[in-house]
Amino acid sequence: MDTFSREIVLRSVKYYKTIFDWDFMIDEKSYENGMKVWVPLAADRPVPYAKAVEMAFVKKARAKFKS
Amino acid sequence: MTWTRRRFLTATGAAAVAARRTPAWALAAKTITVSHSVSTFVYGQHLVAKEKKFFEDEGLAAPSFIVPGGGAKVAQALAAGQAMFALGDSNHPLKITEKGKDALMLFATDTRCSYANVVVRKELFDKGVKSVETLGDPKLVGRKALVAATAIGSGTHVYGVYVLKGLKAPDGRPVNEHVEWVSGGASTTMLGGLKAGKFDAIMAVPEWQWAAEEEGFGKAVYDVRDEKAWTRVFGGPIPVTVGYALRETIEKSPDLAQGYVNACYRAQQWIRRAKDEEVTSRRPTSTPAIAPSSGSTARRTRRSSSCCTGPIWTPSAARSSCAR
Fold first, then answer.
1. Number of domains within chain B
2. Is A42–B104 a contact, with Cβ atoms under 8 angstroms apart?
3. Is A1 inside any structural domain?
4. Are residues B51 and B83 in the same domain?
5. Closest to A44 (Cβ–Cβ): which among B98, B242, B250?
6. Which of B47, B68, B117, B263 is a Cys-bridge partner for B54, taking CB atoms 3.0 to 4.6 Å apart?
7. Does any CB of chain B come closer than 8 Å to the CB of residue A46?
8. Cβ of A16 and B269 within 8 Å?
9. Looking at the complex, does the CB of residue A59 fall below 8 Å from at least one CB of chain B?
């Protein structure tokens, strides 16, 4: 890729701000929504939430840096 | 070994120079190795954390990012122990786990997939293909619709198939049963293929969608920014891009994992509060990239590609052309 204009980059920033997850949390519902997409094309079989997700660090981060 | 006067002066002089050049924080900091596929705004949390010295505030040194140019390579680097922490597609830690090493998602940076947009040829749109559903109408399309993902099995393919399976064609069957998936490659071939009529639709990152619409040869019929449209297919938010690490890394070094997550979380909050123009103006002071090596020692490289150097914010089209 060549260089990009500042305008395009600014547009990208605005775009991604609309879909970013500000709290960083992965809850079971959103994980299950994703699992329906990932299996079978991206992953062979479902992986249980508890085996795949560790939210303890985010919870501590959120407590430390309260918005 | 005999210490001559010259050898002593050379050794002590070099040590003194090195000490002067090493910042105090770096002497006490614990070094972590961090990876993402290419330096686009999608992975902005890493870049902001480095630029704003949030890693350093956590007592960490992340001197360079491992930027191998593809999400699958990031996962390989992490599984091989070349990277301790990574930012990438949520299916990568699952794949690592499937191969026998448990990997864990530590946080999610987004809630929708930026490359699940469907853009059809303008000519078809004008004929009435104004929705994903009508893409499954052979009478309107004139043939079994050819839909391009960057590659079969890529992220654009995975999310595209799900969108097309989730929506029904006029005959009541899933749209996906009425299309043929093809590999479209990177920016030039994806957009060129749509423009030339080689493809009837493409899965598009935002920049491709903008280019096709503004140049007048394509029109979005599925836009992930439309929350209703997203929820209708996906049922709600999905962690698409995640921070992840091996379980053994987290168990062995929970303090480093906490510092990494803290720094990325602060970066995300900074992005949230900063004016868009302020985010855009951020530039790296120095961001050397390290390409994973096949051996135990990483090979340090300074890449000339815009994927890895220059302004830290390159559009996600770069990610797609380099990585997907």
1. 2
2. no
3. no
4. yes
5. B98
6. B263
7. no
8. no
9. no
pLDDT at B273: 96
Q: What is the pLDDT of residues B16-54, one digit of tens each?
A: 555 455 555 556 789 999 999 987 888 999 999 999 999
Does the residue B3 lie in any domain? no
What pTM was computed for the model? 0.82
| B303 has pLDDT over 50 | no
The verdict on A25 touching B (C-beta cutoff 8 Å) is yes
B71-96: per-residue pLDDT in tens? Answer: 889 999 999 999 999 999 999 999 99
Encoding tokens for residue B236? 């709600």
> Chain B partners of A36 at a C-beta cutoff of 8 Å?
162, 234-235
Q: Do B239 and A8 touch (CB under 8 A)?
A: no
Contact B319, B241 (CB under 8 A): no
Is B9 contained in some domain? no
Q: Does some domain include residue A49? A: yes
Beta-carbon-side half-sphere exposure of residue A33 (alpha carbons within 13 Å): 20
A66 reaches B (C-beta below 8 A): no
Report the alpha-carbon distance of residue A10 to residue B127 in Å, rounded: 34
Domains identified in chain A, total number: 1
The whole domain housing B229 covers: 117-234
Chain B interface, best mutation among A5, A14, A57, A65, by max B CB count within 10 A: A57
A12–B306 CB contact, under 8 Å: no
Is 80 exceeded by the pLDDT of residue B265?
yes
Q: What is the CATH number of the domain that holds B70?
A: 3.40.190.10
Residue B139 belongs to some domain of the structure: yes
Kindly provide the ipTM of the predicted complex, given to two decimals.
0.94
| pLDDT tens digits, B282-291 | 654 434 444 4
State the average pLDDT over residues B292-308: 32
